[in-house]
Amino acid sequence: MEEENIFNTPVNPADYNDDSIVHLEDMEHIRLRPGMYIGKLGDGSSHDDGIYVLIKEVIDNSIDEFTSGYGKKIEVKINFVERKVTIRDYGRGIPLGKLVEAVSKLNTGAKYDSKVFQKSVGLNGVGTKAVNALSSYFRVQSFRDGKTRSAEFADGKLTNDSGILPDNSTDTGTLVEFIPDAKLFGNYHFISEYVERRIWNYAYLNRGLTLYYNDRRYYSKNGLLDLLERNLQSDALYPIIHIKDGDFEAAFTHINGQSSDYYYSFVNGQHTTEGGTHQSAFREAYARVVKEFIKKDYAPEVIRQGLVCALCVRIQEPVFEAQTKTKLGSTHLEPNKVDGTNDSPLLKTYVLDILRSHLDNYLHMHAETADALLAKINANEKERKEIAGIKKIAREGAKKASLNNRKLRDCHVHYNTNHARRLESTIFITEGDSASGSITKSRDVETQAVFSLRGKPKNTYSITKADVYKNEELNLLHNALDIDDGMDNLRYNNVVIATDADVDGMHIRLLLLTFFLRFYPELIQTGHVYILQTPLFRVRNKQKTTYCYTDDERVAAIKSTPSAEITRFKGLGEISPEEFKNFIGKDMRLDPVIFHKEFDTKAVLGFYMGENTLERREFIMQNLRIEDDESIVVA
User: Would you say the C-alpha torsion 261, 267, 272, 275 has a positive or negative sign?
Assistant: First the structure.
């Protein structure tokens, strides 16, 4: 009996021969498999898109110079028109004789020598090489010992080498400038807020370092304490507790309005957005120390609910779970020895000992803080008991509904797995069957899911968490996302609100954002929520079709398209599935929902979603705009 081919694909043994074995040079391999090196490409809409990883990889090298004691200033500039990034540090400068190899040959670099770089982020000799390979233009120049050398590359290939030349400047260091390759990244764009957030993180984690981003100065005096104060989205319930001990630093407090705990976690300056062993160690140790202090047998999740923490651990030769270094895998403070043994402290023991010493002492010395902490924990326990029964019934109902849930058309790949395409996992939240029908027929069933709303969801501004569980639609939505117990189980990396570009669509968008801000602000804080932009107009003739997202684009398209036919899309359901594929594929336009420091969540939601009817009516009347549909006319 012939063995069944489980892939249902005929296999010809002759197809696998000597010609199948292909050797790729270092730069070629990075360009062919960029996801292995920078996680994903993207167009800049998401904070973890590749263009920001390229910036990070270059700055990481400059940070490693600073932590080694060289160079207290780093300059970052972005020319948004040319899309050129320039980064200059004032460290020792790359050794001139190996300048070209350092930025173009994999497994080449000083990070392998732990005597030169202690507790560095860039350990694998890949970072700057990936930037070089994925840039249409890349230039590096090193200033060292009164001499300089520069080299230029295109698509990772050397185009010019100045050789070693005399240099009259007294400043040492390295300058790198690059333009991400549009052939790989498409029509990408930099979002300044994402870059600024990274710059601030470098400042918080490296006291004494001054950074300049487009000539604006970034400096932190108090480290993670400054980070937490700047990023809290609600009032702290007690003064921020700030602990520094050796290679450990943490700042934390409790706030209201969160369903779980939330972390800004770092290892050696690397933002570990997916946590890892250091974050798990802190979570476990914190709950244990507080439980011992209050002498009550509360569950760890009750103690941690509402906790916001900024955490950094510095360890030697950290092991990350991927090249993008977003999750720590190390279990010890130092790497294993050659024989596989390790006598350095366990990470979880190290963190527990520090918290037992510092946190326990602090709570004994600051009675008001201890009282506020206990009051918050008691409130968490009371809320948990109040909604336990409702939550159980709601979950059982959601479980039954999910077996035949017409609201959710799921995909195969999810964010909370180890699948290679997990970062692409997306859920579109749509209004009505017509819009969801078009997206469902156009989507990539591997990575794109669709959740269909009945109409306008409930205004959640004034309701309680118990009311959310009682509301079938909202209950099904947060179960689809699997965020009830925090972000650890989030099933989709991108939560995309896809509503019509009309008044009703805008209202639904606001209702959904209110729901997330009230009960799951971490979803927005961690950069997972987006607004889908779909074209408002189609301008076409027999030779050319242009989709326009703004009036300016429409006017420009009409001028360049003789005898044009103009179609105005008033709703997503009016766009055919064949056309919709163009708008949710590789060229999908997403607007991220970003928290700004100045954004007062409580006041904004209160004004737009609260009961101040007269004030809101007056505001609308004063700012009302009347659009003239007759403006859509071809001369």
Answer: negative
What is the torsional sign of CA 260, 475, 435, 442?
positive
> Which tens digits make up the pLDDT trace of 166-209?
998 889 999 999 999 999 998 899 999 999 999 999 999 998 99
**What does the DSSP 8-state code read for residue 320?**
B
DSSP 3-state of 188: coil
Query: Does the residue 504 lie in any domain?
Result: yes
Determine contact, residues 601/234, Cβ cutoff 8 Å: yes
Q: Which of 521, 548, 568 is the last residue of a domain?
A: 568
Same-domain check for residues 195 and 318: no
96 contact partners, CB below 8 Å, separation of at least 6: 142, 144, 145, 147, 148, 149, 164
CA distances (Å), origin 283, targets 105, 256, 326, 481, 489: 40, 18, 18, 23, 16
* pTM of the model as a whole: 0.83
Residues contacting 192, CB < 8 A, separation 6+: 78, 80
66 CB-near residues (< 8 Å, 6+ apart)? 72, 74, 89, 91, 206, 209
pLDDT digits (tens, 9 = 90+) for 460-503: 998 888 888 888 888 888 888 988 877 888 999 999 999 887 88
Are both 87 and 208 inside the same structural domain? yes
Clarify whether residues 69 and 175 are in a common domain.
yes
Cα–Cα distance measured from residue 260 to residue 449, given in angstroms and rounded to the nearest whole number: 25
Domain end marker among 516, 548, 568: 568
Number of residues written out for the chain: 635
H-type helices in 209-346, by residue range?
224-231, 277-294, 300-304
